[in-house]
Each structure stands twice: as structure tokens, then as C-alpha cells.
Amino acid sequence: MALNVLICDDSLLARNQLKKSLPADFDATIVTASNGLEALTVLQTQDIGLVFLDLTMPELDGVGVLEAIKAQALDCLVIVVSADIQPQMQQRVMELGALAFIQKPASADKLAAVLHKYGLI
Amino acid sequence: MTALHFTEEQRDCLQELVNVAMGQASDKLARYLATMVHLQVPAIKLVDTQQLPQHFAQRYQQQSVSLISMGFFGDQGLRGEAIMLYQLANVDVLARLLEYSDDDSSEAEMLTDISSVLTTTFLNGLAEQLDNSFSYAAPRILSSRDQHFADKLAATAQQWQLALQVDIRYQLTDYSFHCDMILLIPGEAVLRLRQMLDQILASF
Amino acid sequence: MQLDWLLQPLLSQLNSGVLVLDAELRLVFINQFIARRADVQPEDVQGKSLFDVFTDVPQAWLQRKLQGVLALQVPAFSSWEQRQYIFKLPHLRPLSSDSQYMAQNCSMLPLTAPDGVSRYICLLIEDATDAYVYQQQLQQSVARLQLANRTDGLTGVLNRSYWQQQLSYEIQRAERYQHPLSLLMFDLDKFKQLNDRYGHLGGDAVLVALCARVTTLLRDTDLLGRYGGEEFGVILPETDLTGAMQVAQRICTAVAGQPMHYEQQTIRASVSLGVAAFTAGQSTDALIQQADEALYTAKRQGRNQAVAWRAVNNEYLKKVK
């Protein structure tokens, strides 16, 4: 059964880049959001299994989304895909419940490795 | 000026490249300064160089602003001039973090040091994503503590066709630092940059 | 085409200094430009710490810059305009520069070895002595012009416009910090008669000698200026009326006590002086006016004396007018 996946990034290029870089054998139905608020709306109205989440975004940033997911106890896995690679930031998102951190730009190799590691493919 | 126009896709692509470059630069800075840098979405704007002086004169009304320039040269005709604008109060914040003491460095040296760190960390990150690399000319102070910086900016800007205006805000844990970076790019480099963006867009 | 053979002759003939350091800031390479000027053999210094070989570089400053290059992997720069030189190296223009060391522009560039791990720093040293010399010359010319612009051609004391400008600054300062400030105006007595008797050159010589003598009686912070033909003013910062009167008396005595000499002739001269102290809110013109009024009183009372301005003088003058 296909996994419902949300890609949340304010950049169209980054969303497309991620979509194209997902492994061919990754069976997913993809929806997108271009900021944190849109992402929360999707999460609250649809059954999303996995989120690829950018951090630096307008309206509501990725940390805000993670906090809301935690507060509202939304049932989904989150993989952070961000250019903000400071160790403190990586630690912070992991503490907020993120499954993994991928440095932008997200390459096919990095994505495949993470998805394999957590048994998502 | 239509030849220098960017499509929305090209602009979005460049914005994302800037984003990633900023992330890399901030990471380096944070490690170097042993502090956390809070990243904000960098506002990028492609503007006609003619409008630049007026824009910044308005933004920094009645304040003294320092203007530092640094030339950069890459492969395939990608080149330009990066201009940093800041208020001295903001420079003092970074100077304290970089542990400058008053006696062993002049203000001029502090300004050029900080500018070269901010500019080259960012531009190296941008170049890498474009499969390019930049070499740099030593930074020059165009004006310091100067209320007439807009005139100097105008004189510099008129040699170039396009300006990529990047509004940089580094929110440090204990300090807030803000400055403006302007990348001034000649016409042929703009065309070259658009081709590079198109190649990236075509691959996704 | 293999170009490796080019590297060695190029580096040794390059008219810039090249030093390569490893991540521990030990010398890996120096080119001939550096070796000859520093009088060291490249093979002797290889592997030694930069700071052991070049003991007089500004170590703390350079170390911080180099650590920045290594940590951030971005270049750093140093310009002769901010720091004239990093390495004490001789230059080839020994006569035209007032500095014995080569003015330098330095680029510090991060390098990574082909193994992708080992970090190095390349220091490129450019000789900027020419630019330095031109700038020194320019600064000297500007300084000479500025001096000419503010001094009186004959006596060498400040000219009227610059002296008056300084008086406004001193008044602002006295006002702001509520410090005392006094003004002294003096005039050579019977100058017209001196001129008639000894000629204009004789009169001029007296003015020059007068200024020289008065200057020796003043502090460095006092400002002597030529106000008119034979009238002069002295700004006395941090001085109240009593102190200013003491200075005035000294000048009066010194001028009258010792004759001046012009072409084997002995000239006896004297001065009349008026003194006024600045009071809060007073304008430059009003202060000059008061000192002038006191000077006028000194003349009226028989010359060769100093008079402090008092409100009654003022009243008296108004009456006679």
C-alpha cells in the first residue's frame, strides 16, 4: 500500500528536487505544502505517514511544525531536510521527535539510505 | 532590460541556492563563533542597479553606514562585486564575538575581516551548487562612518547591470546582527547565471 | 602537455612572496622572493614553525587570522593601508621610502591537498612599497597645504580665519564642559611711528620678533593668532580671568623689558593688552568685543599695560560714545 507523503518546503525547486530524488521503489502518494501553516492543515485533514520537512520557511518554520506535531500528538514520521546544518539545530529537531536529518540539497543517495535505515522501503 | 529578466522558476531556484549557501555559511560561522545562529529566510531581490542607491538611502536614513566591496571571479564568465552594508553598531556585535580588541586592530581591518568572512563563506556555498568556484579580490572599504554612502554606492553600481540584493539577518543567541549584501553582476554574467539556473531546473 | 616543469621556475621568479603553511602553521614552502629578502635557506626552514623562523611578525594577530582561514576555509586579507607590513623584509627603494620595511598586501588562502583531508594555507605577499611611498608624499603635501592655509605668512602664528574658527570650538567646549576660558587681545603700541622710523621691513621684523617672544610665554594649548595688522589674540583654554591677567602681565613685561634688534638698530617696543573671561551663553563676537574694549581702555590709560574687562568699562564707554 502506498505511503502518504507530505513534502513541505517554501521552494518549488526544493520540492521538485526531493520528489525526483526519491528512490524508484519507494511506493508513495505525494502531496506538497509551501510553508508550515499549510503543512499543519494537511496533517490535520489527511492521513499522512511521512513528512519531509524544511526548516527555514515563512509563516511557520519547521521547528514550529515539529512543536505543533508534538503538542497535537499527530501520528506521522518526520524527516527534516534543511540547509540549516548547525549541530545545535540538528540536535534540537531530533529532540523534537524528528526521525532523521538530511542536509540540503537532498541527493538520491542520502534519501535512499535514510529510507532504508528506517525500513520505509 | 527584458534580457536580464528572471522567470519565477529561475528566481525560486536562485532563492533556494541562496538558502543552502546561507545555511553552509551560518554553520561555519556558528562553529567559528561558538554560538548558535538563527537562520531566517533570506529575502532575495533582483533589482535594477539604478534603484539601489535610493533604496538604501531610504533604509538607512540619517545613519552612518559602512560600505565594503569585494570582487569575485568564477569560471564561465561568472563574476561580480559583492557589497556589504552595515551600521557600525552591528559590526561591534560581531567584533566582540570575534574577540577583537581595540588595540591590535583598526576599525578598518575589523570591517574588512568581517566582510570577507561573511561574503566568502556565502559565495563559496553558492559557487559549489553551481559547479563553480570563486576566487576573491581583497576587500576594499568604499566608505566608513559615512552619511553620503548612497553617492558612493551609486558610483559603484552604475558599472554593473544587475544587482542581486540579499538581505542577511543573523540572529545570534545573545546578539542580533543584521546587514545587507548586494551582489552586483555584469550583463553577460547574468545571462550565464540564467543558463546555469535553467540547467538545474531542467534536471528536476 | 605536461606543465609541471613550469612550476619551479615560475615560483622562484615570481615577483611576489609565496609561503605555504600546514595546519600547525609550520612552513612547508617558501619561494625565492621570501628566502632572499629574509636571508634564509628554504631547506633550513622547512618544517619549522612560522613564528620560530619569523620571530618579529605580530604573532597573536596573525595566528587569529590564520586560524580563521583554517576553520572557515575562506581567504583572509591584510592591506598595507591598515597594517603596513607583516614580515619585516627589506624593499628595493631604500631612498624614497621613510620606512626600512617593505609595505605589504597579503592574501591568506585556504588549500586542501589532493587527499581531500590535509589543510594548508598559502600566504601571498605583494610588495606595496610604491603605493605606500606615493601616499606618504601625498599626505605630506596635504599637511603642508593645511599648514599654509591656517598660518599667517609673515609671523607664522595662526591667521585670523583659522584662529577665529578655533575660538568658536573652544567656546563650544567651554560651554559644554563648563570649563573656564579666557581671551587676550593685544596691540603693538605706536606701530605707525615704528614703521615711519624703521621702514615697513623694520615694522615687519618687530612683529615677527614680538610673536616669537610671546610664543615662548604660552602653553602648547594656548592659541596665538594675528587678528589684524598689529593686533593679535591669544585663546587661553582652562584659564580664568586671574590666570589670564597673569599671562597678560608677563607678556607686557617681556616685550617692554627687552629691546628688539633690526639691522644693528635697537628698537624699543611695548604692547597694550585687554583680557576677558568667557561667560556662559556668550558668542564668539561678544567675547572678542569685550577683550577689545579692555584693550581700548589700556591704550587710553597710557599704553604698555594690561587691563581686564569689567562691566564698568562698558558703562563708561557707552557714556563717552
In short:
The complex is a heterotrimer of chains A (121), B (204) and C (321). Chain A is an alpha/beta fold and 121 residues long.
Describe the model.
The complex is a heterotrimer of chains A (about 120), B (about 200) and C (about 325). Chain A has about 120 residues and is of the alpha/beta class. Chain A has helices at about 10-20, 35-45, 60-70, 85-95, 110-115; strands at about 5-10, 30-35, 50-55, 75-80, 100-105. Chain A has a single domain, classed as Response regulator (Rossmann fold, 3-Layer(aba) Sandwich). In chain A, α2 (about 35-45) packs parallel to α3. The mean pLDDT of chain A is about 90. By secondary structure, chain B is an alpha+beta fold. Chain B is built from six helices and eight strands, in the order αββαββααββαββα. In chain B, a hairpin with a 5-residue loop joins β3 (about 65-75) and β4. The mean pLDDT of chain B is about 80. With about 325 residues, chain C is an alpha+beta fold. Chain C has two domains: about 5-135, PAS domain (Beta-Lactamase, 2-Layer Sandwich), CATH 3.30.450; about 150-320, Reverse transcriptase/Diguanylate cyclase domain (Alpha-Beta Plaits, 2-Layer Sandwich), CATH 3.30.70.270. Helix content of chain C is about 45%, strand content about 20%. In chain C, a hairpin with a 4-residue loop joins β1 (about 15-20) and β2. The longest helix of chain C has 26 residues, at about 190-215. The chains are: A alpha/beta (about 120), B alpha+beta (about 200), C alpha+beta (about 325).
